[in-house]
Amino acid sequence: MWLVYRTSRVEELGPHPGIARREFGRAVFALWHEEVFFVAYGFGKYHPDTLASHGDSGAIISRMLEMCGYNVFRGGSSSGDRRRSAAVIAEMIDHMQQQPGVIYGITTDG
C-alpha cells in the first residue's frame, strides 16, 4: 500500500479530513471502490469509520481497514437484505451523532 500511495496522483475535492474534522466536527467522504487501498493507507491516521459488506470480500477488506485504524461497520446491500442495510445505516448515523470527530469514508459505486 505504501508503493500505491507514493506513486499515485492525489486529487482532493473539498476539505481534507483534518480540516473537515476541525471545522465541521465530523464529515462523510465519498470515494470509488478502486480507491479503497489508497485511501486505507493514506487516511488511516484519521481513524475513520466505514462500511463493508457481509460477504467474503467484505471480510477481507474489513480486516485490512481495521489494521489501518478504521472502525468498520458490517452491512451493505450485497446480500440483498434491505432490513440489515437499513439497520447498519441507522447504527452509523447514531454513532456519528454520539461521537465527536467522526470521519466516514463511503464507496459510492457499491
- Name the beta content range: 15-25%
Number of helices: 5
- Tell me, briefly, the overall form: globular
Supply Rg: 14 Å
Secondary structural class: alpha/beta
What is the terminal separation in angstroms? 22 Å
Number of strands: 4
Residue stretches low in confidence (pLDDT < 50, at least 5 long) are: none
Q: Please, what is the average pLDDT?
A: 79
Q: Looking across the biggest beta sheet, what order are the strands in?
A: 1-4-2-3
Biggest sheet features: 4 strands, parallel
What share of residues is helical? Answer: 40-55%
Query: How do the helices and strands follow one another from N- to C-terminus?
Result: HHEHEHEHE
Describe this entry's structure for a reader.
It is built from five helices and four strands, in the order ααβαβαβαβ. The chain has helices at 2-6, 17-24, 36-43, 56-67, 82-98; strands at 27-31, 49-53, 71-75, 103-107. Strands 1-4-2-3 form a four-stranded parallel β-sheet, with helices on both faces. It is globular, with a radius of gyration of 14 Å. The mean pLDDT is 79.
Write the layout of secondary structure elements.
Layout: H1 2-6, H2 17-24, E1 27-31, H3 36-43, E2 49-53, H4 56-67, E3 71-75, H5 82-98, E4 103-107
What attributes characterize this protein structure?
5 helices
Short description:
The chain has 110 residues and is α/β, with parallel strands linked by helices.
